[in-house]
User: Fold this.
Amino acid sequence: MCGISGILDTSRRQEGKVLQEIARRMANTLLHRGPDDGGTWVDAAIGIALGHRRLSILDLSPLGHQPMVSICGRYVVSFNGEIYNFRALRDELANLGHSFRGHSDTEVLLSCISQWGLESAVVRFNGMFAIALWDREEQRLHLVRDRMGEKPLYYGWTGRTFLFASELKAILAHPQFDGEIDRGAVSLFMRHGYIPAPYSIYVGIQKVVPGTIVTIAPDPEIPSTIRPYWSVAAAVERGMAEPFRGTANEAISHLDELLSDAVKLRMEADVPLGAFLSGGIDSSTIVALMQAQSMRPVQTFSIGFHEAAYNEAAYASAIAKHLGTAHTELYVSPREALEVIPRLPAIYDEPFADSSQIPTYLLSKLTRNHVKVVLSGDAGDELFAGYNQYFWGGNFWKQTGWIPRGLLNLIAAGLTAVPPKSWGTLFRIGSPILPTWLRKPDIGRKVHTLAEMLTAECPEAMYLKIISCWKPPASVVIGDCEPFTKLTDRSQWINCPDAVEKMMAVDMMMYLPDDILVKVDRASMAASLEARVPLLDQRIIEFAWRLPVSMKVHEGQGKWILRQLLKRYVPPAFFDRPKMGFSVPIDSWLRGPLIDWAETLLDEKRLREQGIFNPEPIMQKWREHLSGTSNWSEQIWLVLMFQAWLDQVHTDVPCSV
Assistant:
């Protein structure tokens, strides 16, 4: 795993030494992504400079050094990631007459592009990657991102200079970049807790959309182009058009075969390798398939918390013992977890508020003490319907979608006419005769959420109401100008007949790449650890979308087919239990050890002077949270993560209007 960065100065006024120094400075901000080696490549006549930081995984010798020039001399690459099928590609290329100096996948990548051209080569790659390729013959810079966005890549212009990098901190290191905050991105952040691609927190800087190639010319008058080579939407549509026709047992066996091979490819490394093991369905399946193909115990890692509601360590330990892995676990104290929080803005570079970022970093740090590469079980929920909102959201739409909108709007108006606190009082009075499932905290908020869902005119609109944090962002972001996303732009909606599949497809396009994979990449890379995700092998994604919903959701339980696969390796008693999130008790911490930190960042005068947030709704939720009458930890955490980022990463506050 590596960090890449670069410059294309279309004014061509910078001397080679100056370009090289800027490229070196940008690359060195990514030292955590590549502590083993670094390099730059410059062509001052064109105004281009590529930078690289290397975490050596394959071919640890100097023959894997980057930036690397192709044997034919036409291409120069700065590459972050892994091409898992590089050995098969290398054999194919050798039969076509290619020779190789070392045995890195970078050299194979360049030879593939030399042989077949960029796009034809990329579609052959099974891997995770962010690629910056300079074509010396055509004088074009190509930026390529893997199919699901496992590896990050930002780009944009500052004046006549084009910049790109794995992380925003490298772009911030360029002397001409001023970093104006994009108010639209703030609105997206307050809705989602992350900033979805192609947007970034800065005006003029974008994320390369997963599965696309961005091409830039050294002449700013020539417009850049963005072309897809793969997409979730296309995979979904192909799956619907070519559904799996076999039996359930045949589907389980085929998934076993595909996932075993995906795991095998991702166990290729010239350094020690292990796996995250939470004890849940996804990570347990990955570890089981690893151990089935390993001659020695696989090294597995988990962390535990002393708070029972957040602790899965005992389950992970039991599964590790059953499979015979070499297991390491660490119980984390609240103090150790809290010590991570000041580091979060620098790790994530732009506001990011998935609180599981804390245990993910702690787990990565623990794992890096033992291995350099780790396999992760991420993506099982999005691929095989593991999230609870899929079940109750799908059922809700099935029960209400046929009712006339006018009637539903009247019901919703009646429900919202009663304030949440009053609903809470009514439910408390009636609690002796109410069923257990209605005796819940914040029941008034839940009633209002239900009312919002009743007003949704389609499953996509319903899902937007389910997943939104601040509803709407205009209630808190001054001058809100929220841009469209794949969830709000009707032209990007996927034609799925089932509401559950609609929600899964949206999460595959947004939540998975822009939250889950961002969290895993930044947390692992901050510890100089490479994380690989076998479930994101494109063959598995495409097969999953060929399966009927009934093989994912069965009798109100998700991930049916994964459960059946895991049963071949682990008895059900080890994993048949309610789903637990990988989280920490932010709600109680905000009322306890984090209260002083939070009070400082939420200072009403400070918020008003910054001019980004409307302080009134924030302060109201903060008071209600402290009183214990409501749990607003998710919403408060978003504001705190933005304020902490503003304090540490972006001290000046120019902000778009």
